[in-house]
Structures are given as C-alpha cells and as structure tokens.
Design a protein that fits this description.
transmembrane helix, Calcineurin-like_PHP, 23% helix, PAPs_N, 463 residues, globular, Immunoglobulin-like, acid phosphatase activity
C-alpha cells in the first residue's frame, strides 16, 4: 500500500514537472518569435535614405538610395550636368533601390539625377568619378573613417576633414577618390534606422559623390541590415581574387591592392576559408601597395586591451596570432583596424605575434623612421620584379572618427597614440603612401610617409 502511495506521489510530481516544462518551453518559443520578429522589423530596409555610391570601378558605378513608397525609379546620367543623355529604369518597384551604371569610361566624371514617382530626388545633377584602370599610375587620395557610427564627435571630425580637403586641393581633379571604414557604422545595435541616422545621413553630402567601402564590425553584427545596405564584390569584379562571399573581399584601385576582412564572424583559425583565400589573394597580387582593413586590432591599449583573451576579446588575439603572419609574409604595407576608440600607430614592425610584454623593439622594429620636415619618413625595400623583401608592416588603430577616448596608451608596439577624435587621409602614388591624422579641431597631429622606391626622389610635401 505504501509503495502504491509513493508511486502515485512521484507520478503526480513528474506530471507537474512535465506540465511546467511544457509551459516554460512554450513561453521560450513565444519570446523567441517575438525577438526574431522585432529583429526582422528593425533590420528591414524600407524607408527614405540618401543616395550613396557603391562598387566603384573603371567601367561602372552602383547608386543606392531608399524611398518610403515602392517604385521603379529612373537614373538619368551623362557627361554633362545639362545633358543627361542616358537612363536606366529599375525592373521592379522597390523601396531599397540599387542601380548599376555600366559601360562607363575610366577616370571620367559623370553626372546623374534620379526620378522617383515622376519627381526629381535632387534639385540638380550630382556627380561621381569612375576609377583608374587597375595598375594604372595615378595619384590616389583615401579618407579613412574609424568606427564612424558613434555620435559624440562625428560632426566635428567630418567638418575638420572637409576643411583639410579645402586647404589641400588637387588641381584638375576631385579632392577625394574613395572612403574606407574600419567597421561599426551604426551604434548601438545597427538597426536600419541607426544606419540612416548615424551613417548615411551625416555623410550624405560626401557619399553622393565619393564611393564608400565598409568593414563589418561587431556592432554591425547585432542586426541584419548591413548586408542589405552595402554591396560587396564576390567575383573579383575590381581585381583581386574571387572570395565567393560578401564577408571578405579585395579590389584594386590604381596601383593599390585593398583587402577588407571580417574579423567578427569569420573563422580566424589557420587554414580557414578566409585565411586560405587571403594567402592566395595576396600571393597573386602584383600591385605596388597593399592595404588591409578589418575591425579588431591586433595591438591596442586604448578602450580595449589586445592582451585580454576573454571570450568576447579573443578575436584580437586570433588576429594577431593567425592573420598577421599571413599579412607580413606577403609584405603588406599598412594594416588599419578599429574597435578601440582611439588613434594608435606602430613603426614598420615584423614578427610580433605575442603579448605586449614579448615585444622586442631591437628585433621587431624594421624601421623606426626619420624626421624630415615635420613628418616621419619610413623606407621599405622594393624590387621591380615584385619579389617580397621583408621590410615590416605599419599597424594603425583608427576607431576614433565618432568619438575619441582616453586609454593607457602604453603598448610598446604602438609609440604614437592619441585620445583625440579624428580621421585619416592617405595620399598614394607610385613612390609613397603619405598619411595625415586630422583631429576634430583640424590639427594634424601625426604625419608619416612610407616610401618604396628603388631610388630616392625628393618627396612632394603635403602639410
């Protein structure tokens, strides 16, 4: 009799547990549906946003914009603002618009205007420049933005940069060729509206004329809008090696090979798809200069510490240990990362893949630079046949275009550091890369040149 009573009690308890578990799982399922529905809604690209340029090439340009009402918009374009002789009509009525203009001439200024539901979007025609042919000798000016989604100092940094451009015009051509970022375009959660408010709108006066290429950062990963907004070359459309994925890619601009990696979602293990592709891509490139960008810095003592190896910080360690050896073996010239909301920079260094306290300046600094007319000049060896000569790589942390924060700034590999918000201009020609860090106040507080020439011609100075 006692056993029967005990069995009944246990059965009742188990029944209640099963019912409670069922209710819990049901609630969990409902919460998951609500959460994913919310993420879908805030990630959906639907609404008005300004025009911006993507996928710039010598023979093509992609224009993107958004509208409240779905429509088949028309792009009118031509070689004169008053003679827009060509037009492209979208095939489908959409709110997230993307139109590629093709069969264009290289290094040529085109004008365009967009008509939406019978009305012009712009008061007058806008313009863009197609790129030089890959490998062509052409002076290139790049604007680097680091973590631009932050709000605090975005506008002062932008205005200071525009002021610097006005003070340093280029005769007979536009003052800027392309824009590259280090990721985190929208804070805090990378919703569609945050991309509009924090990235596309503040820079709309620039993005409508100058193409922008963006890195995928940890904040970009919080929602699903990123890949709906930004185009990525997957089939080597602009040089480089086909990656067959939007996560990482490369392209050529004049004599510069540019690589943009995914340090957040991609596998950073040796032999992974991305690192295998990276090795092949760098091996096949014959461009004189190579610049690589990704989000997580291999070295920093700013708002993050690259020595910390906790789960959420581990990617900085993996980048340092697994990605850097590939880059240095290929003779990469400049590596630019973000994430840490400061500005930091190394000399030309090599073979530092460990913790900060293992940095040996005597062995790892290949060139500490020389002061010439107020700027630090570095020299890298170069052979016309493309043979890689170990000469060190420059590492830059640029996460301060939205805000600048104080850090410890005591990483031995990064002797140059600042808490000032700012952005970087790179002027590249066949002989040198010249860099300027322009702060929110308009001051240029770091100037360096990397020269790569068989001879030593006089440098054309830029303040």
């Amino acid at each position: 009799m006692l056993r029967i009573i005990e069995g009944t009690i246990i059965a009742n308890i188990m029944s209640k547990i099963r019912k409670s578990l069922g209710v819990f799982l049901l609630l969990l399922g409902v919460l998951a549906i609500i959460w994913f529905s919310y993420v879908y809604v805030v990630s959906r690209v639907a609404g008005f946003h300004p025009v911006y340029l993507q996928m710039a090439g010598a023979d093509r340009m992609t224009l993107r914009w958004g509208s409240q009402q779905a429509a088949r918009d028309t792009v009118f374009y031509g070689l004169s603002p008053t003679e827009l002789s060509f037009e492209v009509v979208e095939e489908d009525a959409v709110t997230n618009h993307s139109v590629t203009l093709s069969n264009l001439l290289p290094q040529t200024r085109y004008y365009y205007r967009i008509k939406h539901l019978g009305q012009w979007r712009q008061d007058a025609a806008e313009w863009f420049m197609t790129t030089p042919k890959p490998g062509e000798l052409s002076q290139t000016r790049i604007w680097l933005l680091g973590d631009p989604g932050k709000t605090v100092k975005k506008i002062p940094v932008r205005e200071a940069a525009l002021g610097w451009l006005q003070q340093h015009p280029r005769i007979g051509r536009s003052n800027l060729d392309l824009i590259l970022t280090t990721g985190d375009q929208a804070y805090p959660n990378a919703t569609y509206q945050e991309y509009v408010t924090e990235f596309l709108t503040p820079y709309q006066g620039i993005f409508k004329n100058i193409p922008v290429w963006v890195v995928f950062g940890n904040h970009d990963a919080r929602r699903w809008s990123f890949y709906q907004l930004f185009d990525r070359p997957q089939q080597a459309e602009f040089g480089g090696l086909a990656s067959n994925t939007p996560s990482y890619f490369s392209f050529n601009y004049a004599q510069t090979h540019i690589v943009m990696l995914d340090s957040h979602d991609a596998d950073l293990s040796p032999g992974s798809d991305m690192l295998s592709w990276l090795q092949k891509d760098l091996r096949q490139s014959n461009q004189k200069w190579t610049i690589v960008l990704f989000h997580h810095p291999p070295y920093t003592r700013g708002t993050h510490d690259s020595d910390v190896n906790k789960i959420r910080k581990r990617r900085m360690t993996r980048v340092r240990k697994n990605v850097l050896p590939v880059l240095e073996k290929a003779g990469v010239d400049l590596v630019v990362a973000g994430h840490s909301h400061v500005y930091e920079r190394s000399h030309l260094i090599q073979n530092h893949f460990g913790l900060a306290n293992t940095f040996d300046g005597d062995a790892m600094i290949k060139d500490a630079g020389k002061q010439v007319a107020g700027e630090t000049v570095y020299q890298k060896p170069f052979r016309q046949d493309g043979t890689i000569i170990p000469g060190g790589t420059m590492y830059m942390v640029l996460g301060s275009s939205g805000e600048g924060n104080q850090g410890r700034f005591d990483h031995p590999a990064l002797p140059i550091a600042s808490a000032k918000a700012g952005s970087v201009f790179l002027d590249i020609d066949n002989e040198s890369i010249r860099s300027r860090y322009v702060t929110e106040d308009g001051d240029v507080i770091d100037k360096f040149v990397i020269r790569k020439a068989s001879t030593s011609p006089a440098l054309q100075k830029t303040n």
